[in-house]
Write a structure and sequence with these properties.
There is one protein chain. The protein is mostly beta strands. It contains no helices and 46 strands. Strands 2, 24, 26, 27, 29, 30 and 31 form a seven-stranded mixed beta sheet that branches. A hairpin with a 5-residue loop joins strand 44 and strand 45.
Length: 512
């Protein structure tokens, strides 16, 4: 048995493609006009996830009048009411943290914001403004407004939303009976629409499919359908009136920092991307004790997942985990070297079974032989009839671990030639001793045997010659120095009561 080891690295990777499972959380965020509250709503089930208290360095926020998302950058813009600051301040807001970044004072009391598809920001002043119910373009770098068009069709509750599917602005006005209308630009005539539900509209956001999310003074959110000009049932009762709505998607994932099929003792580094806390790792659906960090090194085969809180505040796991295969390196073992006689002609191999991958027998030296089942560790090998040394190799692929091979020698020794017995095939008188002789060879051992019709073969002497005094069939088996044996052809010895050696003629005498 000769081991042939392949290089085994301390860390061996069979693949180079990492694996990741994404998780997407879709939320609505609404701002309170009368306090420093921003509410996060899970769109999946319309449940309240959390309340954030937005902050602006150096200022106290007392309310927020509108919020909108730039469709080109995904940034959220918000109208802030600040203590001891006149007018309204335009700022950017991170809806996952509540942190605001000031842009500039808008110069008047604006009540709503909306972006057009090209990234142009618009705002409308409320009834308490110096120039009420007027629509402006807003500079997103300075917050300065530029006149766009006059609206002026109702009392309080100025709200606008842009529908990118039809390129219309939708406008709501009124704190009792609500006016709902639309227009495409500053020259387009305003088209009145049928208001499905009265009560001051505080926030509006196009949801797609002809529906608009509407938040109103009754602290509810529902769909308004544009084509039908109808309202769906309430989706959620909110803790406060929400002035303006934006949508946010938090994309997070669990991923493998490298291949997910490895050879031990290598591990698979797993990581949560986009999580904020509350981590718990699982293997095959069972929590792994103590594994509450954003990373985990997987060492065993199975499906891994992690429950964690994402940036939107939702605690959940990815819908599908990551499959890890941790394989064990197995050294091939072809078994011990074997010795047989040519007359045997075959041998059973004794290789070890693969744990992963497959095993294959090949012949690498010696006269041609037949491997009956090349992929069986215990295959028979036939055709071993020519004396000599045969070498066979057992290789285990081991994937993803390195392959391993081992060789085994099968020595085939010759059998002696068939021995010829001299002195046999005779008939003698009683009392005569017949000496049978086998070929003389110092490397031989002998085993004589006798057989009569009424009895089985019985072993006799072990010398090169055998003295015989009784009738029967006789044979000899010779064994050479390799332990290989050959048996002679049977000879007979007939011991008679009398032997007639004369001749009988007509009228002649009898002789005994």
């Amino acid at each position: 048995m000769r081991k042939l080891y392949f290089l085994l690295l301390t860390v061996f990777f069979a693949a180079t493609i990492s694996n990741a499972q994404n998780r997407v959380t879709n939320i609505l965020v609404g701002a309170s006009p009368f306090q420093d509250s921003m509410w996060t709503i899970n769109i999946a089930d319309y449940s309240i996830i959390r309340r954030l208290s937005p902050t602006l360095a150096g200022f106290t926020i007392t309310g927020m009048n509108g919020i909108a998302t730039n469709p080109l950058t995904g940034e959220h813009y918000i109208i802030l009411k600040l203590s001891a600051v006149s007018g309204r301040v335009l700022a950017k807001v991170n809806v996952q943290t509540g942190v605001c970044t000031q842009i500039g004072n808008m110069g008047d009391n604006f009540s709503t914001l909306a972006f057009r598809s090209d990234g142009q920001l618009f705002g409308v002043t409320g009834d308490g403004a110096t120039t009420p119910e007027t629509m402006y373009t807003i500079d997103t770098l300075t917050g300065l407004p530029t006149f766009y068009r006059t609206l002026g069709n109702g009392l309080d509750g100025e709200v606008i939303a842009f529908n990118p599917d039809d390129s219309y602005f939708y406008h709501w006005s009124g704190n009792g009976t609500v006016v709902w209308e639309r227009f495409q630009n500053n020259l387009d005539p305003i088209q009145p629409l049928t208001t499905p539900v009265n009560g001051e509209v505080f926030g509006a956001l196009y949801a797609g499919g002809g529906n608009i999310w509407i938040s109103n003074i009754a602290s509810t959110i529902r769909y308004w359908n544009i084509p039908a000009q109808t309202a769906d049932p309430v989706l959620i009762n909110t803790p406060d009136d929400l002035r303006g709505l934006v949508r946010e998607s938090c994309i997070s994932s669990i991923s493998a920092a490298g291949p997910t099929t490895v050879c031990t003792p290598a591990t698979v580094p797993l990581v949560v991307n986009g999580g904020t806390g509350n981590y718990q790792w699982y293997l095959n659906g069972v929590a792994i004790p103590g594994e509450t960090n954003s990373t985990y090194n997987a060492t065993a085969t199975g499906v891994y997942n992690c429950i964690y809180t994402d940036g939107c505040g939702v605690t959940d796991s990815a819908s599908v985990g990551i499959d890890v295969v941790a394989s064990v390196y197995v050294a091939a073992d072809a078994g011990v070297d074997k010795t047989i006689c040519a007359s045997t002609g075959q041998v059973a191999m004794t290789g070890n079974a693969p744990v992963t991958g497959t095993g294959t027998w090949t012949q690498v030296a010696g006269p041609a032989a037949t491997i009956v089942s090349p992929n069986s560790p215990t295959t028979n090998i036939t055709g071993l009839t020519t004396p000599g040394t045969y070498t066979f190799q057992w290789t285990i692929t081991n994937a993803p671990c390195p392959p391993s091979s081992d060789e085994v020698d099968v020595v085939v020794n010759p059998n002696p030639p068939t021995p010829a017995i001299s002195g046999g095939n005779v008939t003698v008188c009683q009392g005569t001793t017949v000496t049978l002789s086998a070929p003389a060879d110092p490397n031989y051992t002998y085993q004589w045997a006798r057989h009569l019709a009424t009895e089985p073969w019985v072993n006799m002497g072990t010398g090169q010659t055998q003295a015989v005094t009784t009738s029967g069939l006789y044979r000899v088996t010779v064994t050479n120095q390799f332990g290989c044996s050959t048996t002679s052809t049977d000879v007979y010895v007939n011991v008679a009561d009398y032997v007639f050696n004369g001749s009988l003629g007509a009228g002649g005498p009898q002789q005994t």
